Queue: 2 jobs
Job 1
Amino acid sequence: MEQDNSSPVSPNAHGESQFYMTDIVVERTDIMDGDMTFQNLAELWVFGLPGSSGAKGFALPEVSPGVWKMAESIELCGDVDGIDCVVKGNEGEDIGFMHLDGTKLRTATLQLKQGPRRTLKSFDFDGVHFTLSFDMAEIPPEAISAANDLPLMLDVSSIEQAVLAQERLSDVILEDHNDLLGRFSYLRLGAGFSDRPSPSGDDISHLANTISTLQRFWEHPPVGHSKGPTPLTGCRSQLGSVLSDTDESHATPQEVVKPPPKDNEHIPGLITSLGALFAEHFERRGDYSDFAEAIPVVHRAVKLAPENHSDLPFLLSTLGRLLQARFKKSRVLPDISQSITAHQRAVSLTPEGDEDLPELLTRLGSSFEDRFAHTNNHSDIADAIEVQRRAVDLTPEGHPDLPWRINNLGSAFQCRFDHIGELSDSYVAVTTFQKAVELAPEGHTRLPHLLHDLGYSLQARFRRTGALSDISQSLTALHKAVQLTPVGHADLPTRLQSLETSYKLGSEHAGPRRPFYCDLSDISDLVTALREAVSLTPDGHRSLPFILSALGHSLRHRFDNTGEYSDIREALLAQQRAVSITPEGHADLPGRLYNLGDIFALRFEHSGEVSGIDDAIAALQKVIQLTPEGHVDLPGCHKHLGDVLKTRFDSRGNRRDLDESISHYKYAATSPHSSRTIILSAGSQWVALLCHDNPRSPDILHALGPIVDTFVLMTGLEKAVQGRYAVLQEIQMLLPSAVSFACSLDRPDRALEWLEQGRCRVWSQLNNLRTPLDELSIHHPELAHRIADTATRLESSGFSQESTHITVSEMEKPSAENYTSGYAALGSEWEGLLKTVGAIPGFEHFLKPVPCSTILQHLPDLGPVVIINVDDVRCDALALLAGLDEPLHIPLPNFSLKKAKRYRRQLNSQLRAHVPRARGEEANTASDGNFTARGAGPIVKGGTVDVLRRLGSEVVKPILDMLAISVNPSSGKVPPRIWWCPTGELSFLPLHAAGLYGESESDSVMDYVVSSYTPTITALTDRVKNNLPIDESVAGLFLTSQPNAPGRSPIPGTTNEVKSIHAMAKAKEIRVLMHEGADIAVDDCVKHMQDFSSVHLACHASQKADNPLQSRFFLHNGSLDLATVLQWQLKNADLAFLSACETSTGEEKLPDEAVHLAAGMLAAGYRRVVGTMWSIGDRVAQEVANDFYEYLWRHKGDGSDGRFDGSLSAYALHHAIQQLRLRQDSADKSEQSLLTWIPYVHFGY
């Protein structure tokens, strides 16, 4: 048979689409046992093509074992009904035959914009099965009609289209080769390929074909055009000399710039197109030899281009990208440095206003970022951020590349966070990525990439903060990124791996078998998509193990939410297959083994299959063996192995399993590479097992140390106040448990240290920010100034009304000045300053947690301080007395957390029945001003009296007995003072009123002591230590009544209350100022509180449970909230009398944070505060206030003149309450009577 070797492509018929068979592959698809017949297929012969009298033969070189690939494409013209194909063997024998219907192929072919369509045909020969596959693509006539239309090709949506068009053009140009170089320089393929995401089904063979096409123009003259010199042959001669000169492949761009030849101005662009194609070929195939060809080619292009050549910036940018790509594989530093140099020169040659400048800046920033990641030179990442920000600033709104450039800016911040750890960078990165996603419309080609970067950034921040919202949002973003990524896409494995990691982190945070992401529709959609992806992905494809692993993880997660056991079985099969096709030594093998071990353990837990637990342990042990020390995932592996060993110990009782489990938990809890979540979970398990094995083991305290330290770190100043409160709600039970263990081991000193370190975190941090810097100022004034300045900014920012979500307007570009990231930066700056001070001799303990001995140094002389820890295991009191060098440990065996909760429920029930919701609800009060008979009656069993009696016998009496405090009615002396510091549920119970109240007898704590409360021990000792006299110029009392605040019930008694106090003050010649109702604005109220040492607020107040910082006082002209109060620094503040409701109630979700108005006034600077635990009656409030001030001024010291002194305020309140009790008891002894005086409490010194 005669073979026709003419061109396989017919001339273009203008006005008609051209259809091509491309990427033609023959593959042996039966099971190969290594002894293959027909290993050397030779040719594909095609019959029926127009212009051919016989068959056209095409070489079939073997590209891999059992795979043969044709380099050429075949055009199916409109008049071709069908073709016959014969596959020939190495000796010319016929191996296979098939007929292809041309009409059907053309009809079924998708338009160019939708990409080529893959077609498969099978045939057998002598028991061996082969498949012929090819792509069908259509090129519309407008894409190839004229040279002037070529710039349109820049806008095609896929690599395949551009390459196919170029392949077609190469043949058309054979007839009009004079325009060849101009047309290729217009295409600038290197500028666009790696910037466009790869569509589904793209193949590197197209690039190989394109490279071959270009090379053929100068390697072989076109048939029919070999006679005589032509522009093409001249160009080919020049290119030949250029391409042969490769000795400067590592020279800098400046060194290779020499005068270009004058023969053809298009040569640099043509060479660069070829070089960029080599680079693109590498990016898709991974063949390092492509760089060896590409970089010298583009170097020569730069050398040939004149300084003013319009394409020189593009040539330099292409060179920079090639060098950067080679650096990512070689890690040779000169490559990335030369890349930066090339990009810098490209930018410098591009004028302001040029539309290419933002893209050139983006590439320069990317190279800076890569060099920083390699060298950790901080100036590089600063340059990267600056350059990327400039690229964003130069990109107009609505530009299609704006989301991508914003994303690149976020990437630079994320890179800095990953390497340096500044949390503020993470906040900026997340916000920036969010903005990029927001601006990218649905269907944007880079949306999956943007979503992945956002998901990864949230994941990274979660590792640092432990905020569950971050990992949930990460999963949402990564879910969508994976769903939008086609099967076979080069980035699919990376996105699947990120999704798996977020699943894993979320599971670790939530704890064993606790669902943390419950959108079942999302999970089920992902499972369905991954199942389809598995079915479509051939064996041996690099993406298959990633897809299988992700499928297994998704099924496992769905099981956590549904309990459907079939998901476990399918997940196990998927993970086993993923492991089986992952070779030994592969970087992803440990992660896949971890997933497999997890599924084995889950199967054992739910089916009891004995082999499952052993298989799980074996898999996890191998994970640890394969994971290098210092790897971020290693602590989590140890923790999980500890879990599984503990499960087997519980099942079989093998002592070795217990010991190994303890060892793995210990590693996870103490590793410097552990996340905070891992430390807390592993540490808690470590403690539990130690207690199980030996409740008196000294190792228990060692295990508790990392837990408490992490508890403190998780509520650090990198978060604003509301963020710290959110974290505390999740982990607050850790602290009382640790303290309980310390008490059980007879270590009250450690218990006290932990209580002070972990309780009232916000108040303690605020106190630290206001620490006097006198001594530091003497030795290091500049450092002291920096600390003071940072403290002021932190305090102002931290207590402002921050938003929970940062938004960036359409006109804004992301910046570091947004609230959240700015606050995080201040927090990091503060921690850095503390480390600097701590390194100075003599300041090693500056603002660090203080030891027990220091806490005990400045206790008040007037009485003991008692802190009570309430845990579900045990309850203990620690009594602190001046002169003792350690706390007095008082166990409370008859009290428990369960009882505290029950007593609180009982008390709340009584309050609902007998107490109005707010002061002044006169519909609920009798004519004498007391509460009405609504619910009133005699003392009943199980009510308030029962709660007070049990508190007295189970809590207060054991403490007073141990302190040897008794009643001596004949002495006539005022009882000693005592400061209560309750924790947990006990914070909501009235210890100051505990005791026995009956019809005929009474034995109240008020008969023994004068009670005060303190949020922390340090809050009290600091007042004792710094008890400076009040400045005489501000000593005095500011009074305000607010009887008719809008939206609140009238409280007319406040007017009489304030007027009465004002009259007494005037009579005693006390400096006093009074304002009523509408005649004072909120700002004026604040000013007067700064001008007077003491304040009396007679008004409504409210505790806001969902946002404690919004708890407030209601004035006629506005409200005064706790967040505002906390921003004050009242250095001469003395007493605050809060004659309002619920000013010391606290927040039930944060019992140890004292989040109430009374504690806020202490934090603002007041030394003592009178508040209320619940609502008070209008008439009662007047009586208590009058008795209080009458006692205070009657007992003021000699020589005080007209100055106001609140130092006796605790005694004054004690006296006023006793007077109220006498009046109430003479009238009745009902539940209601008790509830009128119990709410009053005294805080502070």
Note: The first helix runs from residue 102 to 108.
Job 2
Amino acid sequence: MANYLAQFQTIKNSCDHIVIAVEDVSNLWPTVKDRFDERLPFRRASLNNKTRNPVFVENLNAEFILTTDSRLRSRFPQEQSLFWFREPYATVVLVTCEDLDEFKTILKPRLKLIVQNDEREWFIVFVSRAHPSNDNAIKSAKKVYDRVQVEFSTKKRERCCKFDIHGPEALFWEDLESKIMDCVRNTLDRRVQFYEDEIRKLSEQRFMPIWNFCNFFILKESLAFMFEMAHLYEDALREYDELELCYLETVNMIGKHRDFGGVEHGDDHAALLNPGNKPLSQIVQDDSFREFEFRQYLFAYQSKLLFKLNRPFEVASRGYSFVISFSKSLTSHEHKLPFCMREVWVITACWDLITASSSQYKAGLVAPDIEKEFYRLQGDLFSLGRVKFMRLAYLVGYGNDIERSPVNSASLSMLPWPRPSVWPSVPSEASSEVLEKEKLILQTTSKTKHFGIQRKELPLEPTVLLREANRRRASLSAGNAFEIFDGHPSMTDGSGPDGSSKSPNSQKKAGVSMSRTFSSPGNFEGSPDRPMRIAEIHVAAQHALQETISDEDLWKSLSSVEEFEKKYLELTKGAADNYHRSWWKRHGVVLDGEIAAVCFRHGNFDQAAKSYEKVCALYAGEGWQELLADVLPNLTECQKMLNDQAGYLSSCIRLLSLDKSLFLNKEREAFQAELVRLAHSELKDPVPLDVSSLITFSGIPGPPLELCDGDPGNLSVTVWSGFPDDMTLDSVSLTLMATFNADVGAKAVRSSTAMLKPGRNTITLSLLPPKPGSYVLGVLTGQIGQLRFRSHSFSKGGPADSDDFMSYEKPARPILKVFKPRALVDLAAAISSPLLINEIQWAGIVVRPIDYSLKGAILHIDTGPGLSIEKSFVIEMESCANLSQTEPDTPNSFDSQNGSPTANKQLEQLTLEDGKINFPDWASDMDSVIWVPIWAKSDSLPRGSSSVAPPRPNMVDGMRTIALNLEFGASHNQTFERHCSLHFSDPFHVSSRVIDKCNEGTLLLQVILQSQVKATLTVYDAWLELQDGFVHAGQGDGRPTLGSFPLAVSPTSKGGIIFNICLGKTIDENGAEKSESIVNIRYGISGDRTSGAHPPVAMEYSGSDASRKDLTFRSVLVLQRPVLDPCMAVGFLPLPSVDLRVGQLVPMKWRVEMLKDLEDKEISKHNGEVLYEVNANPENWMIAGRKRGYIPLSKKQGSRIVISVLCVPLVAGYVRPPQLGLPNVDESDISCNPPGPHLVCIMPPALSSSFCVPV
């Protein structure tokens, strides 16, 4: 089967579509051929993939070929079975006939013979040539077509269709395409099954000695090619993937030695996208293929299918992985391959993948993450080709033109040298080239950066090239390093042939080595065993590469330094641009730095500065200071050449801000000297500059400086200087930011000239009186010559022995606090317990100075509504120590702030003038209390409550407000305002209850007195003024029945008084009826003003107890008729004895009866009628009658009436019945209002025949 490889490849190249055979029985094909060809390709088709799932394909290519064509008739049976994919997928039989007898005798037997082959998929197209005007011809053709359908079509499958040449064609072409697709689908399924069976048989033999990969390959690729022709690209790609896995498994089998390939001319250029690079017959080897060509062949077809699937991203992804893995294979066979074959192949492979995938990729058609990943892969391919290209350039002697940057050093120093079996030698005719190369090497000098910065250059080689090349020479050993380096010990460190010292032994070895000047060309051809010099190595590599590289563009890029830089920039820019459009933007910025290095070397400082700025921003943001120290001097030099003074100064500051270990001290001093020189000499206009990374500042460790409003002060600030030497500042300004209000602007604090030493410095600034609030450090600004600097960096104090400690502080610590007046003094009410209302009481105001003198303070007092100050009495002011000693157990003790009592107890009487009080001098620095006589007035009488409903205290009714405004300070510029709330209350709360009803009709009324103040109350007398309907029993003077006076009531306790009353009519002297009862209480109070309620101020000034005046308290007491004396009765009448059922009308009846005459009792009526209302749960009952109305009822005793209402129960079970209410009659006048029985039993509705369903 392997002999058919050439034919197989020829068939693949010539056949890229399916074939549909045409059996022209009636010579119709020339007539209909053009119309059939116009339908190609098939725009939409449904085929089955390998797993027999339907797949819709578009633009399926096909070709109609007559069965008599030589392309179909010249095939041998073995070829037909081997290359079955090119056989017809359907057979179209073209027939026409207008005579039924002719069909039976001639056409039918012939058609039977044609369609008897079961392996072919066929169908018949009956062509009707009858003209529309010839009815007989149309009828005859129709009869013949009907007979054809009967003979060749079945119920399972319709195999006939009719094509009317002169009729409409739309329906015919749809039917034709449908039948063709059915045939193609069936044929494709049958052939896929055939190939799978054959492939399975061969797969089972792959570990046997008879295994032949070529046979397996032809079957496998035939199946893949058949899928490709059918536009089933996914299945074709899967076959090639399986073929690759099987091949790798075959290649790695132990015991079989195979040639790798890649030694022919042109193999250095990758053929990853060119499957026809070499014929298969040229790469076959025994029973398999050479790995070098065949793996590229497989990948080329995979890429071809991926491009047809519009997946260039996957081509790039697979391509990058393939290049990496195949490069390892090239490494393992490198000793058999041409010199640097691996590097050249990788470069061409990356370039081909980049070109093909980028041309096929269309932006915006994939998801954003896929798009970014695609550009990342493009960048990786560019970077890989760039590194390999730099390796070739270094080998041919362009190493001095490659920037020794960290990225290039990291890439090249980890890339091994080529490992040929023998390192190439210098051709005999290349002596002039060697001398020219040596001159260039000797002319090369080390590069010195700006400011005289000298650094050891980073290596671009994994090991010394001189040693590696000579070690691989066949006639030399690797042990004598001194001989290898031509007697120059300095070259053992990788410094090259331009070492600074010359060994004396070099004179002794003149016969076998050249002198350092390399001036004698005669020695070049002297001895073949002489170690090669570095110039000879470069020339030998260049000639060897010329033999290896077949790509003219690649060789041109290595022909000169200019062409090398052109290609180098192309690869670097390509990688950087793609990285910028992907996730790896930092890689793009780093490569921008490599582009900047080339621009810098050629004097394009503008472009170099733009790229260097991006690189420096990246390194600074990531904190890579060592990398920043390598690039920043170049940016500084570019800015100097461009006369960018602001950028140049900023770069000098950034150089000074880097870690001290990165530069020598003299280099850092040079940075500072350049900064000072520009600031004082060359700058014409002021230049602003941010030095936050070099100068940091913070407050002095410890609590913030605390000032009062209007007070001056000095603020000390710690400043860390990162300059290596002393720096003189012409001026320094510090901005303080207010934290209490964002709208308040910054306040600047200025200072004169300051000298900053390296490390820690302390600067003292004078503060003008700032506004009250808390301040933090804002911005430190200053000026050095024409340079205006600013710093935003805050630091916090470090250890005492650390002068260069700097760290950012978050959040900023307050550095200054300026207190408002309210923070210097506190005013509060002395007591929180209630005072007596309608009596003159002492109200205490506590004054607490907080570390601030109140000398000469003035207090303004303004009372709110319902409160007044009694000006006839003096105001007292006493120290808290005196008060606390008098009442040590008082919760509100008024000790001084530090808790120590004052030795001199002070008490002074003050007067109120225009609402103001002047403080005495002794109260300027100690806590004190001001006692003000006030009077809270209330015109309404308090109302008592029933013992059943306990009283609810209402704090709002007795609350009064007093406004305080304190002016203090040296010029009374400090103010403090406070509104204090004072609570006033009646001495008692009165509640009453009837405790007994005697047989003679008298009632015992108990009046309960509850104390509402924090003082002892003594009741001396009490009498009761009754309302209409009640009279006093007994003597009738309204006094209690028992003489229990005096009665003492302790704070928050209760006391009771019993009165004897009875029902009756009472009219006062004026003949008016009383609606309310009033209880009068004469009492006395014993309390202290430091605790709460106390005797009125007038009593304190009256003197002895003999002249004491008792207080009187009056409270309204509402009495109601007792519930044991009703005037009306309401009764629920029994329900009917029959069972109550759902939906049945039920009369509900209530009886209302007068129990006594009502001449003296007025009941709400409407024209002599009483209002009634029936209430029921609507979920349980429906009221059918009138549920609300008026009934006539006489006011005479014994009158009665029955109220009846129809109701309908709605639910079954025990439910509560409706109940009757009298809305206009008070409940106390009704004897009872029962809701009827507790529960009423409601039965379910009776069964009805209309709801029965016969079984």
Note: Residues 429 and 525 are 10 Å apart (CA to CA).
